[in-house]
Design brief:
Number of domains of chain A: 1
Helix content of chain A: 10-25%
CATH topology of the domain at 87-248 in chain B: Protocatechuate 3,4-Dioxygenase, subunit A
CATH architecture of the domain at 87-248 in chain B: Sandwich
Oligomer: heterodimer
Number of helices of chain A: 3
Number of helices of chain B: 3
Radius of gyration of chain A: 21 Å
Distance between the termini of chain B: 77 Å
Structural class of chain A: alpha+beta
Order of helices and strands of chain B: HEEEEEEEEEHHEEE
Shape of chain B: globular
CATH class of the domain at 87-248 in chain B: Mainly Beta
Order of helices and strands of chain A: EHHHEEEEEEEE
Shape of chain A: elongated
Number of strands of chain A: 9
Number of strands of chain B: 12
Distance between the termini of chain A: 29 Å
Chain lengths: ~180, ~250
């Protein structure tokens, strides 16, 4: 029996320093879209950064969602596999949902532009925690017999965002 | 091996193994290299050595979209994206209201609206009488077109549904040379809404209780509402079509 059902999120931050084709595409497409869509909340260009635009007009929070459409087609090319991180066997981890996040930007300086993609897994069975390593299974554990598992190291930008403790078997000690 | 010992052993093996993290590291393939082995440097990205040259560096972009398109897949006339509903064809004419109503070509017209059940693509956890739905990562019923030489941008879509608190509407934005020139919404007559919402594909959600006149956005000006109500021709079985002129000031 697993300890819990959990969901994991890996947060991939992307800024000007990133160099993979995927990251560059996300960076450029989202910045181009920011320049367009941010004007709805900053028509005179009075505010330069996303932080200031948002502070002046809370509706600018919708830019997270509006910009996501400009990068959705790149994320679709990942085929639901999280980039960057892998399990200890070198296999990529599957995600169910990828949420786009605009961290910061600047209407005149792309070097300020920073976004993140938060890849969220489906429910995983957490079997054991071994130091900084998680022993996980994609499927529910069978009552008897083996199951496929994988090991993932906790690392920066990796979070457990959902935890549902499973019923643990009772241990009855016979005192004599 | 006992499970406990197995896990301990496994943990040690795992700790010794390499972890592959290739986040925002510089891409080695884009570095300029030299074949001479000398310490000389040059601002040029190509150099000669013997009978060959080091290939010049060029930018990796433009980046193809899924399917290899070089343009954004949202640059599309048909925004239906697999959604079912009564077909709707819309033709937008963009004109310069500050200059004799001359047509504006190459204006980017963005539209988006909800599906027949009142859900938007791209949003998570949307509440409706039909249940809570999440459509993160999907882009249906969204798209943009550049106006042609006659100032027209055409879209094929479906008649929008509705969601709680709003009259039936379609969002529109217009950009000219990257500058936002208009944010607006259009709606349709209540008689057309009434016919569509009792048709087979829409009847599960039913009739929108918020009329155009009662809407907090469209209904706050009788004049504006009249101008924003697009006249449609057609029927549920044949689909509807309509034209709308968007006046902007350049």
């Amino acid at each position: 029996m697993s300890k819990a059902k959990i969901k994991i999120v890996y947060r991939q931050a992307i800024d000007e320093s990133c160099s993979s084709a995927f990251e560059k595409a996300i960076f450029q497409a989202s910045y181009d879209e920011f320049l367009l869509k941010s004007q709805a909340y900053n028509s005179e260009g009075k505010f330069k950064t996303f932080s200031k635009i948002k502070a002046n007009d809370g509706r600018a929070n919708s830019l997270h969602y509006k910009l996501s459409f400009s990068v959705g087609h790149f994320i679709a090319q990942l085929n639901n596999k999280i980039p960057v991180i892998k399990d200890n066997k070198g296999n990529k981890i599957s995600f169910e949902v990828a949420n786009f996040e605009l961290i910061e930007s600047h209407i005149e300086d792309a070097s300020f532009h920073k976004v993140a993609i938060n890849y969220e897994t489906g429910l995983l069975s957490l079997i054991e925690i071994m130091g900084e390593y998680l022993l996980l299974a994609n499927d529910d554990l069978p009552e008897h017999g083996p199951t496929d598992t994988f090991v993932l190291r906790m690392q920066p930008d990796l979070s457990i965002v959902s935890y549902h403790e499973m019923n643990q078997p009772r241990i009855i000690l016979n005192a004599s | 091996m006992e499970r406990k010992n197995f896990l301990k052993t496994f943990a040690l093996m795992a700790a010794a193994g390499p972890m592959i993290i290739d986040g925002c590291k510089k891409d080695a393939t884009t570095k300029t290299s030299s074949t001479t082995g000398t310490s000389s440097s040059s601002t040029s990205t190509s150099s000669t050595s013997g009978s060959c040259i080091v290939t010049a560096d060029e930018t990796e972009g433009p980046y193809p979209y899924v399917g290899g398109e070089s343009t954004n897949p949202l640059d599309r006339s048909d925004v239906t994206g697999g959604q079912t509903g009564v077909p709707l064809t819309l033709s937008f004419l963009v004109v310069d209201a500050g200059n004799s109503c001359n047509v504006v070509s190459n204006a980017r017209v963005d539209i988006w609206h909800c599906n027949k059940d009142g859900y938007y693509s791209g949003y998570a956890n949307q509440n409706s009488s039909l249940g809570v739905k999440s459509y993160v990562g999907e882009t249906w019923l969204r798209g943009y077109q550049l106006t042609d030489s006659t100032g027209v941008a055409k879209f094929t879509t479906i008649y929008p549904g509705w969601y709680s608190g709003r009259a039936t509407h379609i969002h529109i934005e217009v950009y000219v040379n990257g500058v936002m020139k208009k944010t607006t919404q259009i709606c349709f007559s209540e008689s057309t809404n009434g016919v569509v919402y009792v048709s087979s594909l829409y009847s599960a959600h039913g009739v929108n209780p918020i009329t155009n006149e009662a809407d907090s956005i469209l209904g706050n000006s009788t004049t504006d509402l009249a101008n924003e109500t697009v006249s449609l021709t057609g029927s549920v079985s044949e689909g509807y079509s309509g034209s709308y002129t968007i006046g902007i000031k350049l």
